[in-house]
Amino acid sequence: MRKLKNFPEGFYWGGATAANQIEGAWNEDGKGMSIADVMTEGSFGEPRRITRGIKEGEYYPAHEAIDFYHRYKEDIALFAEMGLKMYRLSIAWSRIFPDNNSETPNEKGLEFYDNVFKELKKYNIEPLVTIYHNDLPYHFVEDCNGWASRKVLDQYLELCKVLFTRYRNDVKYWITFNEINDLTVPLGNWNHGGILHEGTKYFEHQVDEPNMRFQALHNQMVASAEAVVMGKKINPEFQFGSMICHITVYPHTCHPDDVLLAQKEDLIRNCFCGDVMHRGEYPYYALRYFEENDIQIEFTDEDKAILKEGICDFYTFSYYMTICKSANPDTAQTSGNIMGGAKNPYLEVNEWDWQIDPKGLRYTLNHVYDRYRLPVMITENGLGARDVVENGRIHDDYRIDYTRQHIQQMQEAITDGVELVGYTSWGIIDVVSCSTGEMDKRYGFIHVDKDNHGNGTLKRTKKDSFYWYQKVIETNGEEL
Ligand code: BGP
After folding, report:
1. Is 462:387 a contact under the CB 8 Å cutoff?
2. Catalytic residue among 179, 209, 265, 412
């Protein structure tokens, strides 16, 4: 059998989470309210929406989440036991600047992250910090319709200044925005952009307004570039990553119309933001897309210059599924796959209709490496599933199987020549789901005893996958 290349020395085997899905303590130690604290629950076909504040008696799992805020020591010790080399976490902006009157950062909020970084250092786990992960301080929604306004951009840079200065010696790897390209599709309006709120003229049905959405995206890309420039001045060793939600697009058939449609979708959905963040300018195809969709945004000469200057150092993406595009009206929208399009008859789906496609990961890795020729990291991947606890054990062979198949394809890609430097498995510990707001869509290698209604002891239990991943890391991917 043909010999595959080994994973490189120093490969970052890791795990990923986001503040609003794990920390809890939503109003403790001076933390302000974020959009994640006031989201409705989601369901099939119905995205989560921002509501106007907390309603009496209404339960939001994110408020307590898995209480990482108080249990971080125990959790990081478990990460260390698993052998993690890297831990991807995000900062809750509203812990640092809680409301619109905060001129100085909230010391208590910063102390929490001081402690987390200290704990990670103790075990030699490299932090990878996402500055913004779906939890805009809520007051921006009321004040200015979230990221649609440049006011948020300025405040984001204030946050960056505080973080870069305080953590100049603790953090080397930064991601400016989680899944920045979520704003290329309407879903991104709410949890990512914090736009279109009750009180704005669009609230009635919280409909999509592409001008505002692409303005928000532009503001984020400019903010990212400014952050990169600022960060490198504070510590030239800092390394910045993009982060793209890569929903790889296949043509449904070899009909040229399907091929062209798939390419068009791929360019706007998957390539657009990476092209801006790594090549430093809007790509040629965006102009036609903007024209055809009548999108006009404010784009200054200063923006143009900063986009050129503040390009990211490495490429990262989340990978959960692939989709198919069909130009044939009979197959254009087939049910059974969450992201729409035509159903791929060769792929299985998980319980939430996410099309599982390990080989698509190898394809995607080659695609992005060929495009940018930069070190690549997979910063999210994993299987959402309902686990069953049997006599205190969780036998999650399905998760082991899923992860093994994806890691095998990573090794294929490395053998192809792709410079893959890390893999941070999503929801290394069970977290609140981003799309449903519930607990029972679990990804973790560590189980957390909590249900959708907030019941449970929050006890941590190692799943079978914990021991499996531990072995993978110990053997640097040789034993899968
Ligand atoms: C990504 C988000 C994560 C995460 C993951 C899984 O889009 O960056 O925050 O939650 O998807 O999604 P879900 O929790 O909806 O299954």
Report:
1. no
2. 179
Instruction: Decide if 327 is inside a domain.
Output: yes
Residue 7 lies in a domain: no
Among protein residues, the one whose CA lies closest to atom 10 of ligand 1: 434
Catalytic annotation on 179?
A: yes
Residue 296, token pair as written in the block: 């006009």
Distance between Cα 416 and ligand 1 center (Å): 29
Beta carbon of 245 within 6 Å of any ligand 1 atom: yes
The CB density around residue 229, as the number of other CB atoms within 10 Å, is 14
Whether the CB-CB separation of 390 and 406 falls below 8 Å is answered with: no
User: Residue 108's closest CA among 173, 165, 29, 184?
Assistant: 29
Ligand 1 lined by 344 (C-beta under 6 Å): no
Please report whether residue 2 resides in a domain: no
Ligand 1 contact, 441 CB (< 6 A)? yes
pLDDT in tens, 201-223: 344 446 678 898 999 999 999 99
Q: Which atom of ligand 1 is nearest to the CA of 245?
A: 7
Measured over the CA atoms of residue 21, residue 26, residue 30 and residue 31, the dihedral's sign is: positive
pLDDT digits (tens, 9 = 90+) for 54-99: 665 566 677 899 999 999 999 999 999 999 999 999 999 999 999 8
Evaluate: CB of 178 within 6 angstroms of ligand 1: yes
List the domain range (segments joined by +) for residue 193: 12-474
Centroid of chain to Cα 154? 22
The whole-angstrom separation of Cα 463 and Cα 469 is: 10
Q: How many CA atoms lie within 13 A of 165 on its CB side?
A: 8
Tell me how many domains the chain contains. Answer: 1
What is the CATH number for 99? Answer: 3.20.20.80
Question: First-to-last CA distance in the chain?
Answer: 17
Residue 151 lies in a domain: yes
Distance of CA 267 to the CA centre of its chain: 19
